[in-house]
Write a structure and sequence with these properties.
By secondary structure, the protein is of the alpha/beta class. Helices cover about 35% and strands about 25% of the residues. Bound molecules: NADP nicotinamide-adenine-dinucleotide phosphate (NAP).
Length: about 325
């Protein structure tokens, strides 16, 4: 059956969460290499909020109105003529790339190469909580971080979306795991596998983490400078945040983008002079890596952490929760 329209939560103008409105829009048409997914659940990421606020306008330039959403879990309803790995009825999950997005909707057309089969032991809500943060943790620890079992890693913001998965993945890789969180989340991060929980409200992580091999930074440039002084010579730092929203707030989207790039470049160069490699990183929507993550979930090595679940028509409240910066894991949208 061909479906011509669908419900989607769209961003109509930059600003507060109320700028997201539920609308009836044309259903996406899958291209030859795309898979059409009936979305059961989606997730909200901080990057969605940054796009909503307009701070990424200079680099992403989405045409408004746009359907946000870079995490989905659902069921395949149609496949393009060149698709070989998926069939109608398959349960899948994915993190659609930055240019595509489109997760806050009943249907999403996603390139086959970005999809993986959903882990069988978890629900769609739990699966939607994984792709973006798990691929990010994978890129930071495995693909670029090359963390090994005899190493020590500092994961910033261990109770958050990325941190909660990175702790589990780093433990699975056999490393010693240190993480930062507020005192309310100490037990949580230890239950995820952290060896040392550093309460950032009363302690300086430098004192615990000095000499670490790797840092996964989710906090931005001010912390990157401190982390360069914390890791050992020859150590590496995976920089997940650029400071763009703060720079854009002060200098506008275009001036802010230039300043954020210059600031980051200066940190990278200064770190190199101290023998430390700072690698800015943007997660890659890679279905093969997502399949490896699904295997780890089914093997019981990684479990998703859900902060809260909202209905799709409550998307503004879901964004307010992520805006708070206090999430324990992921905010999920129930779509179907
Ligand atoms: N480059 C990429 O590809 C990529 C991918 C994913 C995410 N990111 C970025 O990485 C950042 C984190 O993402 P996320 O999804 O993990 O965010 P999140 O889930 O919203 O993070 C919330 C967590 O941050 C913790 N937190 C806040 N301030 C902290 C501090 N000073 N020290 C330690 N913990 C602190 C909070 O814990 P408490 O309540 O205990 O303070 C809360 O648990 C965001 O800026 C996001 O845009 C980048």
């Amino acid at each position: 059956m061909v479906v011509n329209s669908m419900r989607a939560a769209q961003l109509t103008d930059y600003g507060e969460p109320e700028r997201l409105t539920l609308r009836e829009v044309a259903a996406p048409t899958p291209g030859p290499s795309d898979v059409l997914v009936a979305v059961h659940a989606a997730a909200v990421n901080p990057v969605d909020c940054k796009i909503r606020q307009g701070s990424h306008r200079a680099i992403l330039r989405p045409k408004l109105p746009v359907t946000l959403g870079m995490d989905v879990s659902g069921v395949v309803t149609a496949v393009g003529s060149a698709v070989t790995k998926f069939s109608v009825g398959d349960e899948v999950f994915a993190s659609p790339n930055h240019r595509l997005m489109g997760g806050y909707a009943e249907l999403a057309a996603i390139p086959e190469r970005e999809l993986a089969r959903k882990p069988s032991r978890i629900s769609h809500q739990e699966a939607a909580a994984l792709p973006l943060v798990a691929l990010t943790a994978w890129d930071a620890l495995v693909r670029h971080g090359k963390l090994s079992a005899d190493e020590r890693v500092l994961i910033q913001a261990g109770a958050g979306g990325v941190g909660s998965i990175a702790i589990q993945l780093a433990k699975h890789l056999g490393a010693e795991v240190l993480t930062t969180c507020s005192s309310a989340n100490t037990e949580l991060v230890k239950s995820l596998g952290a060896d040392v929980a550093i309460d950032y409200t009363s302690e300086r992580y430098e004192e615990h983490a000095r000499g670490s091999d790797l840092v996964v930074d989710t906090l931005g440039p001010e912390h990157l400078r401190r982390e360069v002084a914390t890791v050992r010579r020859g150590g590496r730092i995976m920089a997940l945040t650029t400071g763009l929203p703060e720079a854009a707030e002060r200098h506008g989207p275009w001036g802010g983008a230039i300043r954020a790039v210059v600031q980051l470049a200066s940190i990278v160069i200064r770190a190199r002079l101290r023998g430390v490699r700072v690698r800015p990183l943007a997660r890659v929507s890679d279905g093969e890596n997502l399949s490896r993550i699904a295997e780890l979930v089914d093997a019981g090595a990684i479990r998703p952490l859900i902060d809260s679940v909202f209905d799709l028509d409550d998307v503004a409240a879901a964004h307010r929760r992520v805006d708070s910066g206090r999430c324990r894991g992921k905010v999920v949208l129930q779509v179907a």
